[in-house]
Amino acid sequence: HGKMPKGDSGFEYESFIESKLEHLGINQDLIKQISKNYSPIRNDLKKGLFVFNKDAHPRNWSIDEEEESKKFSVYAIDLEGKKDSVPAELDLASLLEYVDISLKERKRLFELYKESLSKYATSTNSFEESFSERRYLNASFSKAISIFSWPTMTSERKIKILTKARENVEKIKEVDDNYYQEFSANYDNLLDGLDKIIDFVNSNNHQ
């Protein structure tokens, strides 16, 4: 999707995060805690390589098997009406943060995606600056909030996704410690916010 037509840029700004959490009944103090500390994620995403918004979660793909050759073909579906563009890492997180895979497997898939995207994408910056693991980890926080708000999601699944987001934020320390330390207060508040949301899901699950 690096070569597909792109429209206006758009991704999960604070207002998007706030609306998702409000819809789920999260209290206003917690929503403000997350929103006020979201800037290192938002600013990082704004510097990314923008691509066509595939909205690439697993339900937006179709896999067909050819009977004779036993080969599989993968098709993107539900592209109607999509005109905006998003950071590539955010669209990739739509797919990888939804499924249960190990960190090692996710790293392998991230590198494969990066290799493929580098052949097609264009950017005014170097590709390494435009597409990064740090930005993917930041994007996964935003995507976790979005996926977590789906009405069909079970409490157990929500907790798994939020727990993965927490692990991803902590992993930024390993990937780019300078960036993490610069915004450590923000990230500490975001981690605390995720813990509180997980507690919220758990308490509702036991009522």
Question: Could you provide a short overview of the structure?
Answer:
With about 210 residues, the protein is mainly alpha-helical. About 60% of the residues lie in helices and about 10% in strands.
Sheet of most strands: 2 strands, antiparallel
Shape category: globular
Can you count the beta strands? 4
Radius of gyration: 17 Å
Helix-strand sequence = HHHEEEEHHHHHHH
- Uncertain regions spanning at least 5 consecutive residues: none
Provide the residue-averaged pLDDT: 81
Beta-strand percentage range: 5-15%
The end-to-end distance, rounded to whole angstroms, is: 44 Å
Number of helices: 10
Helix content range of the residues, please? Answer: 55-70%
Lateral strand order in the biggest sheet: 1-4
The helix/strand class is: mainly alpha
Supply database-style keywords:
10 helices; 8% strand; 207 residues; two-stranded antiparallel sheet; mainly alpha
